[in-house]
From TrEMBL:
It comes from the Eukaryota. PROSITE patterns: LIM_DOMAIN_1, LIM_DOMAIN_2. Keywords: Acetylation, Actin-binding, Cytoplasm, Cytoskeleton, Ion transport, LIM domain, Metal-binding, Phosphoprotein, Repeat, Transport, Zinc. It comes from Periophthalmus magnuspinnatus. This is LIM and SH3 domain protein 1. GO terms for cellular component: cell cortex; cytoskeleton; focal adhesion. One of its GO terms (biological process) is monoatomic ion transport. GO terms for molecular function: actin filament binding; metal ion binding. It is found in: Cytoplasm, Cell cortex; Cytoplasm, Cytoskeleton. InterPro entries: LIM-SH3_domain_protein (IPR051759), Znf_LIM (IPR001781). Residues 3-63 form the LIM zinc-binding domain. Plays an important role in the regulation of dynamic actin-based, cytoskeletal activities. Agonist-dependent changes in LASP1 phosphorylation may also serve to regulate actin-associated ion transport activities, not only in the parietal cell but also in certain other F-actin-rich secretory epithelial cell types.
Amino acid sequence: MNPMCSKCERVVYPVEKLNCLDKFWHKSCFTCEVCQMALNMRNYKGFNKRPYCNAHYPSATFTVVADTPENLRLKAQSEKQSTVTLPSFTRPTCSSRPGVSESHC
């Protein structure tokens, strides 16, 4: 039995079949979800098993990280490390270095 097209839901015969994104498509139905531009195996980008052209490919969104005990511990440790102050070092003055002229300081 021939598979059904993922877009038009009609039968896809072998001569017009395109197998992509774990689905079957008519070659004419394999178009961008947004602008309906005809796509092929070389110029499509898949997202959530749907085809997109390069211009309409959804941009990645940031996900929220759950406040698990491990993440909370790491966050606290990071904050603690960022508040640590390093001792300040002062450069010795030339007068405290015998035998060194002022021009070398």
